[in-house]
Amino acid sequence: MQFAEINWFKYAAPQRFYGLAGKAVPWLSALAALLLVAGLVIGLLLAPTDAQQGDAYRIIFIHVPAAWMSMVIYLALAFWAAIGLIFNARLAAMLATALAPSGALMTFIALWTGAFWGRPTWGAWWVWDARLTSELVLLFLYIGFMSLHAAIDDPRRADRAAALLALVGAVNVPIIYFSVKWWNTLHQGSSVTFTQGSSMAAPMLAGMLVMALAFWAYAIAISLARLRVIILEREQQTHWVHAELGNA
Questions:
Q1: Cα 83–chain centre separation
Q2: For all residues of the chain together, what is the average pLDDT?
Q3: pTM of the entire predicted model
Q4: Where are the alpha helices (DSSP H) in 88-201?
Q5: Is 15 domain-assigned?
Q6: Does 12 map to a domain?
Q7: Which residues does residue 54 pair with via DSSP β-bridges, in sequence order?
Q8: Does residue 234 fall inside a structural domain?
Q9: What is the pLDDT of residue 22?
Q10: Which domain holds residue 108?
Q11: How many structural domains does the chain have?
């Protein structure tokens, strides 16, 4: 069967997507583990020492992929929340809900590792830098999304209210990305861009990209695993869920 011939719309049903996610999670988890080991080996053992920052720079192999993922996951969350809001798609709303904890974790890791990087680089654990502040706002948006959703008993009303917050908060993502260009900040600019390529040594770039792929695989795997739990909770009155839980 050709890839284009697959009827992907059938997986919009929570019951069918539940099985597909269950098959994908183990493979993605194994891929994330392998990429994580490879990325750490490259970043901590094979990449050269930076001429200016010494070995302190090696935190970028955690910090930068986490920062990337914090923004990407929020955009994905806002996208699926919008699909759920506009088309009343249950699975899309569930997927947005499943993505939120993963995005919050990545944002926290980015802020935490940034503090450890900033201490030897700037001489301070935290400064009210434009990028740091907007990244902190992103963490509050994730927490707000999850808190608002949990505060409303009716799942459908919770989906709609949280979706509106997600869409309003999406404006913060370009602010994070362009903050180093729009304002005079302490945070360094991007070392990797689509237009100018990379200013990093090849082993450094390789390690960072491998770690980014590891974070991608992990975030997708854990979000799909969480989505399966949400589906079971939201569809618990259906016959297929009773059958699924009976066979577990």
A1: 18
A2: 88
A3: 0.90
A4: 90-122, 130-151, 155-169, 172-182
A5: no
A6: no
A7: 50
A8: yes
A9: 94
A10: 23-48+57-243
A11: 1
